[in-house]
Amino acid sequence: GQSLEQPSEVTAVEGAIVQINCTYQTSGFYGLSWYQQHDGGAPTFLSYNALDGLEETGRFSSFLSRSDSYGYLLLQELQMKDSASYFCAEVEGSQGNLIFGKGTKLSVKP
Amino acid sequence: DVKVTQSSRYLVKRTGEKVFLECVQDMDHENMFWYRQDPGLGLRLIYFSYDVKMKEKGDIPEGYSVSREKKERFSLILESTSTNQTSMYLCASSLSSGGTQYFGPGTRLTVL
Question: Is B50 left (phi over 0), alpha (psi -120 to 50) or beta?
Answer without folding.
Answer: alpha
